[in-house]
């Protein structure tokens, strides 16, 4: 069976800076965010197709990149970010001031201590990984790029490493950071994380 190589890139910084956006807040990329993404993907690209979250901070750049390199771009609704419920639109500093116990409990146990009205973490991981595996099956022998969110990339890395959901937020995902995974027909292997395209051999 031929390999599938998957590069995942997190969107750049959106307008409004660092917030818990989830999938209800659809801010566009800031000027800085656009530059982060262009810098991270500068030079010849290896991809056969691009798959993107439907949220503006991802698909606007995916469309630009696809047009530039004449690559097909597919929107995948299940690659939208996890829903953060009542935390959406708030900064870390606000949560530490207004909801400290809630904030600390979440990072201690993100599975059982969800923000109020947030998406169930296990349900989120399932929707992401189910969609991901379907795209892998359809992309045998190809090199694909997924433009998505920190949570989506964490879920895919955790699936690849067979890691538990409890440790999901211990994975740091940089804005415009690229993660590379190779699938050999049996398992996936994490090859690179938080790099630019030019840093991957």
Question: How does this model look, in words?
Answer:
The protein has one domain: Rossmann fold (3-Layer(aba) Sandwich). The model has no long low-confidence stretch (mean pLDDT 96). It is 34% helix and 17% strand. The chain is globular. Helix 3 (92-98) packs across helix 4 (100-108) and helix 5 crosses helix 6. It has helices at residues 31-40, 56-69, 92-98, 100-108, 121-137, 150-161; strands at residues 4-10, 49-52, 73-75, 143-148, 178-183, 188-195. It has a 6-stranded mixed sheet, with helices on both faces. It is an alpha/beta fold and 201 residues long. Helix 2 (56-69) links the parallel strand 2 and strand 3.
In a few lines, what is going on in this structure?
With 201 residues, the protein is an alpha/beta fold.
In the CATH hierarchy, the architecture is 3-Layer(aba) Sandwich
Q: State the CATH superfamily name.
A: Phosphoglycerate mutase-like
Percent helix, as a range, is: 25-40%
- Please, how many domains? 1
Give the helix/strand layout.
Blueprint: E1 4-10, H1 31-40, E2 49-52, H2 56-69, E3 73-75, H3 92-98, H4 100-108, H5 121-137, E4 143-148, H6 150-161, E5 178-183, E6 188-195
Helix pairs in contact: 3-4, 5-6
Key features of this structure:
6 helices, 6 strands, 201 residues, 17% strand, Rossmann fold, single chain, alpha/beta
